[in-house]
Amino acid sequence: MKILVVEDDELINDAVVEYLCDQHYAVEAAYDGQSAWDLVEAFTYDLILLDVMLPEMDGITLCRKLRNKGIDIPILMLTARDTLENKIEGLDSGADDYLVKPFELQELSARIRALLRRGSSTTAPILTWEKLSLDPSTCEVFYQEKELALSPKEYKLLEFFLRNGRRVFSRAQILEHLWSFEQVPEEATVKAHIRGLRQKLESVGAPSNLIETVYGLGYRLGEEP
């Protein structure tokens, strides 16, 4: 899952980005409203954390602009302004939730999980495919009853496939969804992570084609024989 953090306070931005990366999200940062708008036009995000008081374009204006263009990404608004009028203004501009600073990172994480669940009515709390299961709340992955020890990027890759069923993704699409635009590596990196993920799946008894190569197109979840 890819999150855009829009916050002009560098200390808060850096702390939130670091925490969310540790929670296995792919995260990008913007420090003003105009930069955030440019990123949303260029890339796909699953959720936006949006500060109200921003340079260039404030959060309320940006939120309205996104909604007026038909962009329905879940938006969690962050602000130090905690009056009822401020909350109403934020929600009326199109935000899905509202969190007042200062906040605990654990609460922020819980709000994010709730919004991501709400954003997809078909997304079960535990993601499953054949004998494979992934619990986003604990970041635990099991094949049958055997737990897999995955690297953060392998975990994100597997979660990405599980959330998209049999849909095929090219290496370029995987890079766009799971890496920030500032850190996009070569496409060969995707191949290396796919190989590592397959090896770990096979080590607990999963078939070799559970992550299937669709030649000339990319990768998808495979079906067990």
Provide structural commentary:
With 225 residues, the protein is α/β, with parallel strands linked by helices. It has two domains: 2-119, Response regulator (Rossmann fold, 3-Layer(aba) Sandwich); 127-221, Orthogonal Bundle (Arc Repressor Mutant, subunit A), CATH 1.10.10. Helix content is 41%, strand content 20%. The chain contains eight helices and eleven strands. The protein has helices at residues 10-22, 33-42, 59-68, 84-92, 105-119, 152-162, 171-178, 187-203, and strands spanning 2-6, 26-30, 47-51, 75-79, 97-100, 127-129, 132-135, 140-143, 146-147, 211-214, 218-221. Helix 6 (152-162) packs across helix 8 (187-203) and helix 7 crosses helix 8 (187-203). The protein is elongated and about 55 Å long.
Provide a quick synopsis of the model.
The chain has 8 helices and 11 strands. The chain is an alpha/beta fold and 225 residues long. The mean pLDDT is 86.
What are the main properties of this structure?
225 residues, alpha/beta, Arc Repressor Mutant, subunit A, five-stranded parallel sheet, four-stranded antiparallel sheet, 8 helices, 11 strands, 20% strand
Number of domains: 2
Say what the CATH topology of the largest domain is: Rossmann fold
Average pLDDT value?
A: 86
Strand order of the largest sheet: 2-1-3-4-5
Q: Could you say which overall geometry the principal axes of the C-alpha atoms support?
A: elongated
Order of helices and strands: EHEHEHEHEHEEEEHHHEE
Radius of gyration computed on alpha carbons: 19 Å
The total count of strands amounts to 11
Binned strand content: 15-25%
Detail the poorly predicted runs: none
Helix fraction, binned, reads: 40-55%
CATH class of the largest domain: Alpha Beta
Q: State the oligomer.
A: single chain
CATH architecture field of the largest domain: 3-Layer(aba) Sandwich
Counted by DSSP, the helix tally is 8
Q: Structural class of the secondary structure composition?
A: alpha/beta
Query: What is the name of the CATH superfamily of the largest domain?
Result: Response regulator
